[in-house]
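FORM 7B - TANDEM STRUCTURE REPORT

SECTION 1: FIRST PROTEIN
SEQUENCE AND TOKENS:
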Amino acid sequence: MSSPRRTIAALLALSLATPSLGQSASDNVDPFIGTGGEGHTFPGAVAPFGMVQLSPDTDTSHVIRDSYKWAAGYRYTDPTIQGFSHTHFSGAGHSDLGDFLVMPAVGEAVALEPGDPAKPGSGYRSRFDHKDEVAKPGYYAVTLSDPGVRAEMTAGTRIGVHRYAFPAGKAAHLVIDLRSSLYNYPGKILWSSLRLAPDGTLSGARETRGWAPGRKLYFAMRFSAPLRDHAFVSTEKDVPYKGFQGPGRGSEALAEKSGRGLVARLDFGALTAPLEVKVAISSVDEAGAVANLDSEPGDFDAVCAKTRAAWDKALGMLAIDAPAPMKTSVATALYHTLLAPSVAGDADGRYRGPDDQVHQAKDFTFRSTFSLWDTFRAEHPLLTLVQPEKTNSDIVRSLLASRRYSPDGILPVWQFQGRETWTMIGYHAVPVIADAYLKGVGGFDAREALEAMVASASYAPYGGLGDYMKLGYVAIDREPEAASKTVEYAYDDWTIARMARAMGRKDIADTFDKRAANWRNSFDAKTGFVRARKSDGAFRVPFDPTAINYGSDYTEGNAWQYSWFVPQDQAGLVQAMGGDKASVAKLDAMFDYDNSKLDYSHAEDIAGLIGQYIHGNEPSHHVAYLYNYAGAPWRTQARLTQIVASQYKPTPDGLSGNDDLGQMSAWLVFTALGFYPVTPGSLEYVIGRPFVNRAALALPGGKTFTIIAEGLDDAHPYVGSVSLNGRPLARGFIRHGEIMAGGELRFVMQAGPNKAWATAPDNRPFSSSTVRQ
């Protein structure tokens, strides 16, 4: 008997070869970064912002016990692959999706259960070896050792294409499992259906009760070889659910089945060429999935080539020159920032909104997958630099469309496939919209946007907003995580004021400028920390600034992290902390804190600790840049060196925490360039230090903004001087308009700190209490 690998090699030599992956911007990307540790990324095939994320799911039997670690479906340390499903989050801190799992099988007897990962041959799952894996933007391949099948994946915007090279002479099969999911809720599949049309198209749907309740998704699937036989099997043992309408296509079918637990076996016989499987999805209906399938013609190689070209264009907006490890890390970070917000509307513009009804988008593409508590900080500001205005306009229009059809009349909080999860805090669609508007992004109704922002900030039932509007803070005896909510609401309010003032709405601006100062109501001058207050005005006791307990005073953090969240008025915070010297000392105390006697094992998101600085979670992301506001930018430079060295590397475990739909990655892209948007909405970026030798950002109108780090190496980590377009830059920030105008930002690096540069108050970044007109 010949070995499976030898048989595969012989077949592949006679069949379609692996697509050419010649040198291009895509070649600098390693999609395996973040697939180990707590990065929660996936290595599979996806187009820029694609609706389909076609990727392997490994030992998802663990999802029942620990869905957090398998939130992306794939963990690098797992030894088996269960199959390839079509929807995945990139770096989320919560699990769901994993829709419509496909797995090849060979031989006469086909298992319809995945089996035990520890018992080879007990089901349709298969062992694999990482040396047989290939992952590039838009392409993934692996050899499935047990059936001896070479599996390849590519994806378009709304489609995924599989290609399976089966061993010669063996009967080829596919298992389609509608029971598989990446969420551990009992009874998660409410209803599902399968339908085989006379033309050989397999379609179906399912409704799930997962992170987002009542989520409906449909698929359509076509094959490059005819079916010889098939079986639709129901494994349900409970009463059928009556609320789901099923396919509803109205035409004749060769076979149909519906129920809670469906799995299909598709038989193709012995094949002489690889089997291609093209799949499209839709949140609207099966007809939409079929139309999406038809909207992107071409075979595997054609789709792969088109998507690769799309990735080369998107990634080519930022050219980087750096040592190989840093170049890979930054290029991959940029790749991860271009995966979401993902397309969620069909090719004809229809989409399913938060009201669970179908709506029609006119002149824009509806997008979803909004992890706004994470991404308002750097992900969305980065997109305003590296993506066309149309992308950013579509994002804003999608947020407004969701609010238009929201049962509660407010903007999205954490949404995917049009469904709201109400996860995390704040109304952080507000700064995304304000920042885009202030940067000149058009294509949306600014009056409607401002109305939506004010409505979201005035909805009393949400997150203690009623008390916040009456008391000036969220009361901890009435609402959990009150300290965090107070300061986050205050920042969001400031962005409303900024946009309202730019639109000439002084009445709204004055109201929300006043609310933006509410952070002071939670700042305790005696302890120097932001704290939770009760409705009677007293701070809650006892108080431990290192305590992290979900559902208490702070959101995924403690007083050390949240006491620095005043991005709209960091100068005011420095003053409240006792001035420059006291603030620098407190920042140093945060980074240098001895955690040896603390146990944070109960808190999933607390990763990447440097003292009490937690880089693996978002509340800390701007903190290293705050030395600039206290007149010590060289301390920012030193901390950035420490963070980048310890929190990022070009390996599967190269992200210290969840990528959170691109936020961890956006932080690295900005920081590598030498600046960061501490305060989205201010139109300023705080200068840190660069980590690449040279970068060139392509801009509209054929302009280019170039960053040069003269003399940069490990021995020269400090900024000696900065110039903009050949003129010395004495300030520690750069304006958005200066970047968009094109030109050159040049750093001269040196071995020791320059303690004179950008220290004067007038040269410090924006703060509302010291605003420059």
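SECTION 2: SECOND PROTEIN
SEQUENCE AND TOKENS:
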Amino acid sequence: MGEFIRGLRAVRLRAGEPSLGELGRRTSIPASTLSDALNTGRRRLPSLELVRALLHGCGAEPAELAWFERAWYGLKQQQDHGAAPPRETAPPERGAPRQLPPLHGFSGRADYLAELDTAVPSITVITGTVGVGKTALAVHWAQQRAESFPDGQLFVDLHGHAVAPALDPRRALSLLLQSLGVAGESVPVDLEVQTGLLRSLMTGRRMLLVLDNARDAEQVRPLLPGTSSCHVLVTSRNTLGGLAVREGARQVHLGELSEAEALDLLAGRLGAERVAAEPEAARELVRLCACLPLALRIAAANLVGHPDQPLADFAAQLHGVNRLARLQVVDDPDAAVAGAFDLSYAVLSPEAKRAFRLIGLMPGPEISAPAIAVLAGLSPHEPVPALDSLAAANLLEPGGTGRFRCHDLVRLYAGRCARHELPAVEREAAVGRLQSWYLLTADAVAELHNPTMLRLPRTECQLVGTASEFASTVDAVSWLDRELPNLVALIEHAATAGPRWLSWHLVDALRASFYVSRQDMEWLACAQSALEAAQAEGDLLGIAATCNTMGIAASSRGELALSEVRFQRAAECFERVGFQAGISSALNNLGDVLHHAGQLRRAVDFIERSLSLEVNRSNQSTHLSNLAAIHTALGQPQKGLGYGLRAVAAAEQMRAGAALSYSLSDVAHVLCRLGRADESLGYLDRALTVARENSASKCELSALAGLALAYSILGRHDEAVLHARRVLSLAPGPESMGMDPQHQSCAIEALVAAGHFDEALAQAASLLVFYDPSENALTRARLHLLAGNALAARDGREAALEHWRSAREAYAHTDAPEAEALDPLLG
């Protein structure tokens, strides 16, 4: 207990040892309570809420906060049960990540394991030729030493040498940050910000990070935690010498198995009795497989399927086809291992061979049973029994219900089989079916997720087959989450290898889902590739659609000038091809950008023009919701309420879940501004339910922000603060493409009303850093106004003047009437 309290006192000392009175103002906790909490002679633990508040008040880092939480839970267990706490105790709401994949049949490598045990640097790189067992060694060592890393073990496959595109460091960091508890919608977009956040979260923790199948040092470097308390284990076919030079990484070069280790591996797969019965044949088989674990496992899989076949006969077959002997060729390891694939492939049934060839046509990292069925010309819901045969032969690895993965060399070999054995016409037909299925199913997901969002006509796509069907929106979103890596790979492949039109049509189909579920990293990468493809083809419709998508992405990050340029380009291209619905969409989006920039009357003009051009009325609810928000901002809430109610009716008519949730939240916001907050609660409860039913996280944020504002107006400040903190924790700033500025303002307004002045000031200050004064005048004005109000309530009018003056200056660049409220405050 004493050590824990002394740690709290040390944090206070590093913060400049603020007085208890100052800490009381920061935390809203009486100074006497804080004094008692910091007394090293106390017998009982201070409450966790008090500890958290004290640490926040002293500006503790996230990793420091996490450490004290773990220590608190351990001491609490000791007090409650009289048991000694574990060395590292994690809070019950989030356990330490344990991501190491399962490993079966590991054999030998005692010298390498010992070498890894003695590795002093915090970074170790395991290098070696293909199929030598780098990943198996890394995972086995990590599993054996898991207790040395009590804060968790993270595992990321970087796809450095795979058919699928290598994992971009931003995407890899996004995965790591989410594994450490950062919400997907809160992951920053900027690479340096991501790296800094990872290092902050891992500082002080004892964790192991396994980076498998790295391409080069540049792919790995941003992922390094930069702390000696964590260990990084990297596997790669390349030496990654740059890591050794600059980061002091230790290299472990993995060679082939010894004969004894290879025989042990074979015995583990075939049974010790079968290997012992033919010792010479077993040694010959090991020699022909060049003691490579991958080749031995595949050869053993063939023998397992034929339990009566002598090992000598199998070894003679290898000599006869002269394929596995190529494993001895040092300068061509990829071609050498292909001999083992030949043997596995030769014994497959005709149905399994065909399924295997079709796998070679898949561009993504995973294989799903529906995708193979479509390639084979079946319905996506029809079973493909041959996939189980391929898994039994170790050519596929089960990765979940109906999903499989395979070694990248296996996939390359499958592609070679497809090219050599399938006529070009048959290959093109199969790939066309797969592309159609992905696009049709992505459209089906969008229809359930956000049916009001505009989509391009698919007339140029020549689609065949049918989409997968979903029982609910949740099922549809789950499909999108599972297939996202394949969809991204398909877009990237189509953008470069063709057909290029597929890239922008897929991005267009996924836009609705990306927008409401906040898959921001994938959204940006896909849209950029599709835009480049459309520009290369000179396809105006493709350019317009991708510019529209990228404009929304820029707006979500607060980059309003870039967003305006994108939407103007989209409107021009839509107009040149005469696509009226597209023009309407781009004009509405322009109006929304102008709204956030504070140019409210221009925003109204653009959105009213968009409504006059709307041809299918599907977007009407969104456009009406925007008008509701803008007229409310113009000081015309009664007019805004009329537009909001029309938006709700339009969304209900379209059965559009996401649009309905937004419209309900907008109506509630207007009611709050009209002094009818009690009426708004029903709209907000419904908005929150609809958002969650449709897995629309951005819509959920809007409803939570509205609840924070409504409860604040009604004087229910505990509930208001709870919702406000939830909103602000989900998206710390626009660099993460987090949310609408109105959400942030409502949350901070609720904190001010509840008397949490320091917290409100800290939130406003952190957000002001991210919003550019030249682009986000209205947002900055509102944040300065709220910060001034908080200071005035806490310290008096004089303390607030600087923020109020800044607000007045920002409002001068807008036509928002809120500026008038500042005149009496400034005298």
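SECTION 3: OBSERVATIONS ON SECOND PROTEIN
The longest helix spans residues 424-449.
Residues 88-94, 322-336, 732-738 have pLDDT under 50 and may be disordered.

SECTION 4: SIGNATURE
Preparer initials: ____
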